[in-house]
Amino acid sequence: MIQEREMVKMLVRGGHVIFDPAAGTDGVIEDAGVAISTDGKILAVAPFKDLASRFPDAPVEGDPGYAVVPGLIDAHSHGMGLSYFELGVGYDHLEYWNTVIPGIHRPDPHLDALWCAVKHIRSGCTTIHHMGGASSVEDVQTRISAYEKLNLRWAFSLTVKDQNFLTYEDDSFIPGLPEELRDEAEELFDRDKKRLHSNYFSTFDEIYRRYHSPESPVGLGPMGPQWCSPDLLVKIRAEAESKDARIHMHAIQTPYQNEAIFRRYASSGVSHLAEMGFLGPDLTLGHGVWMSEYDIGLLADTGCSVTHHPACNLNMRNGILPAAYLLSKDVPVALGIDGKGLNDDEDMLAEMRLAEKLHRLADMHPGSSPRVTPARLLQMATSTGAEVLGMQDVCGTLKRGKAADMALIDLTPDPYVHPDATPQQRIVMQKDRDDVRTVIIGGEVVMREGEIQGIDEEKLTAELIDSISASDRAGSRRRVELLQKLRPYILQHFEKYRPLPDRIPPFYPVNRRQWH
User: Fold this and answer.
1) How do 333-335 and 406-410 pair as beta strands?
2) N or C: less crowded end of the chain, CB within 10 Å?
3) pLDDT for 461-511, tens place per residue?
4) d(CA 330, CA 281)
């Protein structure tokens, strides 16, 4: 019979072990440790002296000056190691930006995803939700293999859209183009929806068959209600229910998107989805910046969740998600970087800090306290992230039987911190990725004292840069040139929209044009 002490691979020690971020101060044990079993699962969380007595021969990672937290979870990413800024495009309104980014020449997808994994691990992230399209199963394998090389846990959602490739009303926009551009614009994208749907679902079926498991869930990723026909959404809903797969949809990111749906369906984006029976507890909406109180009520009633991307929403000039109001209605809100973080370094700690500052504006009454607290943000970046990915039984907390995914963050005062400050406050208010010292995923140390294990970062970055210069640029040249010609007409089209009337009050009192 195997003795219990023989089942232990290592002990992880910290001055604070935050085993359940949703429990606030009750979810923290002081001067504690985590016992990790040989199968990479958590065997016990307890005061360190008790674990050291129980498992005297176990090697120890960590230090009393560290906080041990569940591995952070980027609940919405596109797996890009090099950002759009780094590749020379920068950020702007999505409606304009979509006419520019086809000109980007991205590096080799495996190397790109590998660099993305390195950046995530450096900030204490142990799980990434990769949203991406694919022409084949091999395209997906290219990226998954990069994450698995560094043991980064992943979820994958296969993205798709079948309409409105140039504007949100292509059926009226394209016929109105000058004749010399009209035919070229028609040929720019495959408009055979039957073929597009068939290819999408056959690819999804194969990816799901090969890779889906509780530890690596595969889901559906419709790009947004303005980009997906009702027919496609009906099929996606049916596919999700038949496979018990989750759906993660970009939605209500910009005011123009919501306005376009009003123009077509006389409903908001969320109401349109509700009328189709698309909402449900298996649906997560990415962004959701321009939802109304009524929309948020629909999400609450149907059990939907939202991912919040504060830096992306600022970079892309989207606005600010009404996260405080969503939380007040018990809508689960997770955190995602969306490949457009504050410093272009995929830093989940920086993302939490930015969110904490943004949402202090939600209520400016002198006697009120912010709803989006450091403790809540750590929950959003861990247990809620696991929940919206369907991975709540795998990761997100440090509890017996869960995967041993954790980050060790140095909380040593520099030079002093008041003893009343909680570890959650100190992590969110003060720490950055340089304070993440060690990262463990599935019981394997993937970063120790700031050094990524099993990879030559200098060699990787050299190969990454070489792959950009070696990319084939001829294939996209025609599309880029055509989009340059179409850009003035696309921007003129959006000038007809009026999504921002002054009479509608905002969720957050940022400033005002007049006092009386």
Assistant:
1) unpaired
2) C
3) 999 999 987 555 544 677 888 889 999 999 999 998 988 777 777 888 776
4) 13
Closest CA to 411 of 438, 445, 435, 378: 435
At 138-184, the pLDDT tens digits run 989 999 999 999 999 999 999 999 999 999 999 999 999 999 899 88
For the chain, what's the residue count? 516
How is the chain split among helix, strand and coil, in percent rounded to 5?
40, 20, 40
Judge whether 312 and 334 are in contact, CB under 8 Å. no
Distance between CA atoms of 345 and 339, rounded to whole angstroms?
9
Report how far residue 304's alpha carbon sits from residue 426's, in angstroms, rounded to the nearest whole number. 31
In angstroms, rounded to a whole number, what is the distance separating the alpha carbons of residues 79 and 157?
Answer: 12
What CA–CA distance (Å, rounded) separates 371 from 349?
Answer: 18
CA geometry: angle 363, 368, 373, nearest 5 deg: 80
Residue with tokens 């369906």: 265
Distance CA 69, CA 317 (A): 32
Cα–Cα distances (Å) from 404 to 4, 10, 53, 217, 301, in that order, read 17, 11, 21, 18, 34
Dist. CA 51–CA 31, nearest whole Å = 11
DSSP one-letter code for 177: S
Residue with tokens 């530890």: 215
Q: Which domains does the chain have, with CATH numbers?
A: 1-70+396-450 (2.30.40.10), 72-395 (3.20.20.140)
Give the residue from 138, 74, 148 showing the smallest Cα distance to 341: 74
What single DSSP character describes residue 276? T
- Name 34's bridge partners: 12, 45
- Distance, in Å, from the CA atom of 65 to the CA atom of 173, rounded to the nearest integer, reads 61
Are β-strands 125-132 and 72-77 bridged in parallel, bridged antiparallel, or unpaired?
parallel
Is 68 in contact with 14 (CB distance < 8 Å)? yes
**If you search the block for the tokens 């490739």, which residue do you land on?**
165
> Residue 324 CA to chain centroid, in angstroms?
19
Amino acid identity of residue 124, one-letter, is: G
CA dihedral sign of residues 452, 454, 459, 461? negative
Give pLDDT tens digits for 438-460: 999 999 999 999 999 989 999 99
Instruction: Report CA-CA distances (Å) from 38 to 14, 319, 421, 509.
Output: 20, 46, 35, 52
pLDDT digits (tens, 9 = 90+) for 70-108: 999 999 999 999 999 999 889 999 999 988 888 888 899
CB 81 within 8 Å of CB 149: no
| Partners of 33 in beta bridges | 13, 46
Question: 279 CB contacts (<8 Å, ≥6 apart)?
Answer: 270, 273, 298, 299, 302, 304
On whether the CB atoms of residues 267 and 239 are closer than 8 A, the answer is: no
Residue 42 and residue 36 in contact, taking contact as beta carbons nearer than 8 Å? yes
Exposed/middle/buried for residue 92 (C-beta within 10 Å: 0-12, 13-18, 19+): middle
